[in-house]
Specification:
Blueprint lengths: L3 E3 L2 E3 L2 H7 L32 E16 L1 H10 L7 E22 L8 E25 L2 E29 L2 E10 L19 E12 L4 E12 L12 E11 L4 E12 L16 E15 L2 E16 L3 E13 L15
Antiparallel strand pairs: 1-2, 3-4, 3-14, 4-5, 5-6, 6-7, 7-8, 8-9, 9-10, 10-11, 11-12, 12-13, 13-14
Amino acid sequence: MRSNKSGSCVINYAAAVAALVLCADVSHADQGGSSFWFPGQFASLAAMQQTPGWALSVIDYHSSVAAAGSAAAAKEILAGKIPANVNVNLNLSLSGRADLVALTPSYTFATAVLGGQLVGGISGQYGRAATSIAGTLTAIAGPIVVTRTGMLEGSLTSYGDLAPFAELLWNHGVGNYMAYVTGNVPVGDYDPTRIPNIGLGHGAIDIGGGYTYFDPAAGNEISGVAGLTYNFRNPDTQYRSGIDFHFDWGASHYLTKQLFVGIVGYAYQQITDDSGQNPILGSFRSRVFGVGPQIGYSFPVADMQGFLGLRGYGEFGAANRPSGWNTWLTFTISPSAPAAIAPTTHLVVK
């Protein structure tokens, strides 16, 4: 969920993106099907500059996912602490749902840094996650065979991890460029034997960059942001997820100065193997793609600028991770551009 902009004012919800990046593990990949990066965090106008000052984004995130085979088994192996030397035959299915609210305060500095605009902030979330695993798991250790059939399920309403972030933004005519760094501070509610969790249980660092083409005269825009996530070892499980590559994109057209419509999408691919997992799971590299519609509207709020946007994604092509659908409802409030420099064309939203 990156930033939202209105006129020349950009409301950075990249932070909020970072917040959901650490969300409930029913929705992700890597360890037990969970990852730091939430695909879809960046969308339209991701690299556009912003009006200096404080901004606040509130993101309401909903997802519903399902999985079978190794993606479901990874959860039960982790929660059940099944040893790596135990052979496991899998016939399991997983379903999960997350309802989370992320808060992301951010500050845009007026003084240039490396010729660009510096934005910094932090994101965190609170909400509810529910997961169920059904089917049959057969564990074999030498002559001992144990078969368990039934359902494991649980829900949790709690707080998640924190995700600080920083961005540098540059503008050259219709071309806009961005570099960012963010990461996961594992302070959220996490228990390795629980299904599900809100916290991730380990640290992570994510770096990347993006580009936005925006023609205010025609009202057309297209953006793309790529990044890599490095995951640290989980001290409770000794599990380390591999390096993840992600690419988020968005394209929009302004119907009026305040209203735009468009499409959004993402691609997520783990590029190195996990370590510390049960051998039956193999390398457990995860993958997923998503695409869907978006709409946004900007409006004045006293002497500030408000933005309300909605994006939805349907997922496909998933491997070793739950998949389904998710929605992002974003409200952002940020400083208004000074009248002397405020553009007369379109609102911009990340």
